[in-house]
Amino acid sequence: MSLSLNRPLISALTAALALSLGLMAAPHAEAATKKAAATSKSKAKAKAKTSRSKGKTVAKAAVAAAPLVIPPADAAQLEVASRVYYGSYSCEFGQTIDVSPSTEHPGYADLKSGKNTWLFKPVQSSTGAIRLEDVKGDMLLLQIAFKSMLMNVKTGERVLDGCESTEQAKLKADYDKLPQNERGPGVLDQTPPKTTP
Fold first, then answer.
1. Whether residues 98 and 176 fall in one domain
2. Does one domain contain both 91 and 44?
3. Whole domain around residue 177: which residue ranges?
4. Whether the Cβ atoms of residue 35 and residue 69 lie closer than 8 Å to each other
5. Contact 102, 108 (CB under 8 A)
6. Which residue of 26, 32, 89, 177 sits 20 to 30 Å from the alpha carbon of 49, by its own alpha carbon?
7. Distance (Å, whole) CA 192 – CA 93
8. What is the pTM of this model?
9. What is the DSSP letter of 164?
10. In the chain, how many domains are there?
11. CATH for 173
């Protein structure tokens, strides 16, 4: 057989071989393409997630860096601020707090406890108690007639309890001197109210 006679056979065999190699390479190429696409997709997701994460971090930093705007006190707030017990308070376990009128923000109060200082807005509660609300929303000083307590609003825990200003101590001493029948029933008097049948 001569080489020239087998040329159609060789061409057919070459075409068949090329076709089979192409078909065999196609699944590998397809898998490689899918893998590359998946890798690209996961990189894009990771980049987007990092971008979102950075965006959140940047947003949090912007909120933290943004200056806190304190609105001027209105007439009602100024009136409540005039009834706040200012000065040093003695609390349970030898702790102390100091409450003073804010020099920067009229109608507000500065509270110091240890190394911490907060700016509080005086608010009249519906029960008659005075609430000193931290302008950042973290703390609350609740003042009732004979004692005050400092609370962490976010955790709901009492930070300091049994805090008593000079005025509160005087009010309590005066109340304790009253005869039982002049005190009147209520929470401050441990005797339950008398009821008539």
1. yes
2. no
3. 75-183
4. no
5. yes
6. 32
7. 30
8. 0.60
9. B
10. 2
11. 2.40.128.50
How far is the CA of 77 from the CAs of 37, 131, 168, in angstroms?
63, 11, 21
Separation CA 174–CA 120 (nearest Å) = 29
Residue 135 pLDDT level (bands cut at 50, 70, 90): very high
Per the listing, tokens 């805090």 go with 163
**Domain C-terminal end among 66, 89, 108:** 66
Amino acid 192 reads P
- One DSSP character per residue, 7-74 reads HHHHHHHHHHHHHHHHHHHHHHHHHHHHHHHHHHHHHHHHHHHHHHHHHHHHHHHHHHHSPPP-PPP-
- DSSP H or E segment with residue 77: helix 75-81
pLDDT tens-digit readout, 139-185: 999 999 899 999 999 999 999 999 999 999 998 999 888 888 777 65
Domain shared by 119 and 141, yes or no: yes
Phi, psi torsion values for 160, nearest 5 degrees: -135, 140
Does one domain contain both 50 and 80? no
